[in-house]
């Protein structure tokens, strides 16, 4: 086991190439403390499960990924654990900011932690509130983590999908420790959905039209007068 200190903010980022015409897909991961948010993000981005993670780190990870054959900058905001309060989910200010920032939100609870499951509706409400003030509702995915801990389960398998249906979000039951493909599948499908929703790249600006120098009015005038003079001469000649 290794404490994941080295993976500091954007440490997983291969330097983005800003010359590429791609746009970032931004995902915020939210849930109670200890449900496995960091484990899930690290698993998705590195394929690894380390087992011991810096508590409340709330790092932002950035990666270049291929989505439907297109290179995309993926940014994932891991957040410190949310807590329940009488007035709803208690979130630090910067977490509320990341909800405004995010294109999509992944809500996580642990099947071994009843309170983390009960916190989900409050968190979803907070996400909706941020969406209302930002003018758009981001897609929300609900992840039930730690599915491997069968003997410690206290949220039934049917309850997750039911809650997801009520909230109108997609649902996956996963285990960050046991199964990379489920975790990858959940995040990857969300990325594909977001990539499809992206507005098309703005058309490149038209090439500057070749500027014609306006003819000098004096030259024009001179030409006109020269023509007049010529035609007068011709008239004179013919009349003779
Ligand atoms: N058995 C098991 N343990 C997990 C799983 N996901 C995370 N953990 C453990 O749960 C603890 C908290 O995980 P962490 O990612 O730090 O939770 P966070 O506070 O939500 O970021 C750590 O000891 C992890 O090793 C899982 O799917 N199965
Ligand atoms: Mg964490």
Automatic annotation (TrEMBL):
<feature type="compositionally biased region" description="Pro residues">
    <location>
        <begin position="199"/>
        <end position="208"/>
    </location>
</feature>
<dbReference type="InterPro" id="IPR005225">
    <property type="entry name" value="Small_GTP-bd"/>
</dbReference>
<dbReference type="InterPro" id="IPR051065">
    <property type="entry name" value="Ras-related_GTPase"/>
</dbReference>
<feature type="region of interest" description="Disordered">
    <location>
        <begin position="198"/>
        <end position="223"/>
    </location>
</feature>
<keyword id="KW-0342">GTP-binding</keyword>
<comment type="similarity">
    <text>Belongs to the small GTPase superfamily. Ras family.</text>
</comment>
<keyword id="KW-0547">Nucleotide-binding</keyword>
<dbReference type="GO" id="GO:0005525">
    <property type="term" value="F:GTP binding"/>
</dbReference>
<dbReference type="GO" id="GO:0003925">
    <property type="term" value="F:G protein activity"/>
</dbReference>
<dbReference type="InterPro" id="IPR001806">
    <property type="entry name" value="Small_GTPase"/>
</dbReference>
<keyword id="KW-0378">Hydrolase</keyword>
<protein>
    <recommendedName>
        <fullName>small monomeric GTPase</fullName>
        <ecNumber>3.6.5.2</ecNumber>
    </recommendedName>
</protein>
<dbReference type="InterPro" id="IPR027417">
    <property type="entry name" value="P-loop_NTPase"/>
</dbReference>
<dbReference type="GO" id="GO:0048382">
    <property type="term" value="P:mesendoderm development"/>
</dbReference>
<dbReference type="Pfam" id="PF00071">
    <property type="entry name" value="Ras"/>
</dbReference>
């Amino acid at each position: 086991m290794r404490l994941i200190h080295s993976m500091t903010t954007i440490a997983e980022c291969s330097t983005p190439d800003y010359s590429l015409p791609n746009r970032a897909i931004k995902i915020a991961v939210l849930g109670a403390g200890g449900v496995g948010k960091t484990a899930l993000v690290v698993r998705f981005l590195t394929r690894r499960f380390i087992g011991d993670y810096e508590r409340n780190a709330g790092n932002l990870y950035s990666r270049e990924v291929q989505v439907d054959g297109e290179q995309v900058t993926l940014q994932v905001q891991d957040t410190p654990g949310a807590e329940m309060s009488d007035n709803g989910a208690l979130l630090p200010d910067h977490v509320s900011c990341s909800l405004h920032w995010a294109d999509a939100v992944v809500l996580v609870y642990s099947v071994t932690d009843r309170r983390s499951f009960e916190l989900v509706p409050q968190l979803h409400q907070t996400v909706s509130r941020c969406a209302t003030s930002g003018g758009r509702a981001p897609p929300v995915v609900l992840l039930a983590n730690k599915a491997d801990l069968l003997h410690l389960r206290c949220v039934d398998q049917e309850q997750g999908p039911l809650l997801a249906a009520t909230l109108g979000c997609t649902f996956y039951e996963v285990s960050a420790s046991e199964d990379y493909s489920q975790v990858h599948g959940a995040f990857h499908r969300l990325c594909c959905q977001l990539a499809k929703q992206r507005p098309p790249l703005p058309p490149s600006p038209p090439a500057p039209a070749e500027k014609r120098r306006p003819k000098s009015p004096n030259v024009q005038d001179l030409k006109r007068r020269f023509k007049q003079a010529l035609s007068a001469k011709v008239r004179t000649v013919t009349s003779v």
